[in-house]
Design goal:
Radius of gyration: 25 Å
Number of helices: 13
Shape: globular
Strand order of the largest sheet: 3-2-1-17-16
Number of strands: 17
Order of helices and strands: HHEEEEHHEEHHEEHHEEHHEEEEEHHEEH
Oligomer: single chain
């Protein structure tokens, strides 16, 4: 009996020790600590970093130099992520997690900055200048700028602005007339920019021209010299994940409004993606097509070719469209596309950005000054472009199987652990800054900083606020 009691006591003490020794338990951040960290970080960013309600990508630590696509002018902000609406989304997350009105005020300022820079064509370009004499303005609706009236879907610029304004308008209970008007104007422009076949251009000035829907065909054998079009941004585009960017934007508007015209736009987008699949033996997608649905050149280093990155983006978009529309016809392109892309997968689970028509050879470019020359070799690639991309084919196969079974595999949400939150709290400095250190690599927007340079990043700030807001909601 004594031995038995000793055994029980040993088990109890061991269990107690293990419970006390679990890392993170004693250090789990309290709700108060998280709230205070969000407040301190946003106070610094809104007071010292914000300009005209907006933001750029990076800042020198003393805030004397600001970087967007290159060095930004004093009165210039960036729309393209991770600029103004990207930061605005973080303020929305902070408000949703705390209901503190200071964050809603920050949301309003970001929204009004975007309202200022909205083009007459209804969307946005990559930056906004608040100095009419700067030479970097565009044809703003407010009449305060001159220049081009080309709104853009490239790089998710107008899409992110619209998604932010949609959320801001809801948070403000549709009571801010300028923001509500800007959103509605942008939504009308978005629908007007969709071609009848469901495609979208890279840029637009107004309602697009009407062309009959056709299935994609391969270019002629003279594609290296043919198919070069000056205004390629007016054509049907899939470049830089435009398919998924347009789907997410249309879907968020549809989920919020339940207006069937946005569901119809999603269906039309899906119909175009089906038609844009090239015929066998290369049943994948190109970056851009002319109005005859033939792949064509865009920039001098963007040839007509099978596009590895965009093909994966199209596949996932079609899977998502099949869930939203509950129509399995959008799954039909998958088997042939997967089998083909598996056959051209590179070592180390990579796909080339481009594959040559007919040969399936990966295509690359070498650069001499401003001249680009096609090559099959990958040992001297320019650093400004993503010539290879990570293969997602195994994951896409799993998603397809779940979609085929009538399940929605896209419902999972990101989790932030107590350890993650504690690290963010600890890394905030005494002024309320998360300071980054350059590792010598090129940053977003072609920004280059010497290794060891300390700087502030809008992306780091926004991502960290989003994580803390997510954690805060999980412990409420």
């Amino acid at each position: 009996m004594i031995l038995f009691l000793r055994h029980l006591i040993s088990i109890f003490l061991f269990a107690l020790f293990c419970k006390m020794a679990v890392p993170g338990n004693a250090a789990d951040p309290t709700k108060k600590e998280v709230v205070e960290t969000i407040a301190k970080a946003t106070a610094y960013f809104t007071k010292h970093v914000e300009k005209h309600g907006g933001y750029v990508y990076f800042y020198s630590l003393d805030l004397s130099t600001r970087y967007g696509e290159g060095i930004a002018q004093p009165d210039q902000i960036w729309v393209q992520a991770p600029g103004t609406p990207y930061v605005g989304m973080a303020y929305l997350a902070a408000w949703e997690a705390t209901r503190d009105p200071q964050y809603l005020k920050a949301v309003e300022r970001v929204a009004l900055a975007l309202v200022y820079g909205q083009l007459k064509s209804g969307g946005w370009t990559n930056s906004i200048s608040f100095s009419p004499a700067s030479g970097r303005t565009a044809a703003y609706r407010n009449g305060m700028g001159t220049g081009r009236n080309y709104s853009t879907w490239d790089d998710g610029i107008s899409q992110l602005a619209i998604r932010f304004l949609l959320k801001a308008d809801v948070a403000l209970e549709h009571k801010h007339p300028k923001i509500n008007d800007s959103l509605n104007y942008a939504l009308s422009a978005m629908l007007a920019s969709q071609f009848p076949n469901g495609a979208f251009p890279q840029g637009w000035q107004g309602k697009v021209a009407e062309y009959p829907a056709k299935n994609a065909t391969l270019p002629s054998e003279r594609w290296r010299t043919e198919g070069k079009i000056k205004n390629y941004w007016d054509l049907y585009t899939l470049n830089d994940n435009l398919a998924s960017q347009m789907f997410h934007t249309l879907n968020e508007v549809y989920q919020q409004t339940q207006d069937k015209k946005y569901l119809q736009a999603i269906q039309q987008l899906g119909n175009f993606l089906i038609c844009a699949q090239l015929p066998a033996p290369q049943p994948a997608w190109a970056q851009q097509y002319n109005y005859e649905m033939v792949p064509v050149w865009a920039r001098k280093f963007e040839p007509p070719a099978i596009a590895g990155s965009e093909s994966q983006d199209v596949i996932e978009t079609l899977l998502r469209i099949s869930i939203v529309t509950q129509d399995k016809k959008y799954l039909e392109p998958f088997p042939k596309a997967l089998k083909y892309l598996q056959s051209v997968e590179l070592p180390d689970q990579l796909l080339a950005r481009y594959y040559e028509f007919g040969t399936n050879k990966p295509l690359y470019f070498v650069r001499t000054g401003n001249l680009y020359e096609l090559t099959y070799k990958d040992d001297q690639l320019p650093s400004h472009y993503g010539w290879k991309t990570r293969s997602k084919l195994k994951n896409l196969q799993q998603l397809y199987e779940q979609c085929s079974a009538g399940k929605n595999p896209f419902l999972s949400s990101k989790r932030v652990t107590a350890m993650d939150a504690q690290k963010l709290i600890k890394n905030l400095d005494s002024q309320g800054r998360w300071v980054d250190v350059a590792n010598g690599e090129q940053l977003v927007g072609q920004t280059k900083m010497a290794k060891g340079t300390v700087y502030l990043s809008s992306e780091t700030f926004a991502d960290n606020i989003n994580k803390l807001a997510t954690y805060l909601k999980s412990i409420d």
